[in-house]
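As the work plan foresaw, the team has encoded backbone shapes as discrete tokens. One protein thus recorded appears below exactly as we store it.

:::
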Amino acid sequence: MALFRVFLLVCLVAIAAYTSVTIANHGMGLYPIFFGDIAEMAWPGQFNLDFLFFLMFSGFWVAWRHEFTVAGLALGFAAFNLGAPFLAGYLLIHSYRTKGDVAAMLLGPSRAARAR
């Protein structure tokens, strides 16, 4: 679990640094570029569409883990919109809240308890 937590921290730092430089150089105009690449039907758009589906999976998983409560839906929306930085932070927090119990971290505490 310690190596996984280090990995999550490295991801958070790397994406924060990269995003800071990108915003400084190009501004906050992500969505027109992101969806414009998809509309062009070329490899950058294919990658963006693939990534968009991963964001959807992430959002649905977070909402599901919280049993689609209002808080779970809000967290799922955040996961969808904020991507890897959100998910890395979310997993890092839950790795501590669940004391490293991977089943509880991935399924949520109530589903993990039922699975045992």
The radius of gyration is 16 Å. The mean pLDDT is 95. The CA atoms of residues 18 and 61 lie 26 Å apart. The first helix runs from residue 2 to 26.
